[in-house]
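User: My collaborator sent over this chain with a note saying "see what the structure looks like." That's all I know about it. Can you take a look?
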Amino acid sequence: MQTYILSLGGSLIVPDQIDANFLKRFREIILNHLNASRFIIICGGGKTARRYQEAASAVMQLGPDDKDWIGIHSTRLNGQLIKTIFKNMAYPKVIRNPTEKITLKDKERIVIAAGWKPGASTDYDAVLLAKNFKVKMLINLTNVDYVYNKNPKKYADARPVKAIAWKAFRKIVGDKWDPGANVPFDPVASKLAEKLKLKVIIANGKNLQNLDEILHNRRFIGTTVE
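Assistant: Without extra context I'll predict from the sequence alone. Here is the result:
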């Protein structure tokens, strides 16, 4: 059985309000692949996390750990939502520790995970899940079609990259984690993924037909980092 690690960006679950239409279509895609596949889906915090962080910051000065814990609990809320829509097929609890050894029943084809501890994002937790479940490829579903060679919001000559090595990719994202940072893949996660020789596909999760193409091992829109 093929096992996929999916990092589901919080911006897809809650772009502004909870996107029920996206959830319905996402559920259909996953269900269509359950006969031959198992999915480990880790949820990000997205705007939910940022709004709570901003609200708390407006009241008092927050440290990085404070912001991280708000983000972590936002991912757990999103994770509970995703687990609920896969109710009868999912492992009965949301995984908080990506290094935890769990035994899955055959019918438990879906495992939902969320944030673990401060110092990194759910991208890092996704890499740890890949290590734990001995999976060599991770699909990171975000809200952009490609990784760019530099920030397209700042540079008009930024260009999309379809394939890139980890060394070059890490020059783009840097080395330090910043809670609430908007990068295609967390720098801490990138460092570990490179060490593990993990293949990461970064694609726009809004295009669910594209996700289906990835799962069928066909041509897709996105960036491959390896």
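A starting point for your reply to your collaborator: The chain has one domain: 2-225.
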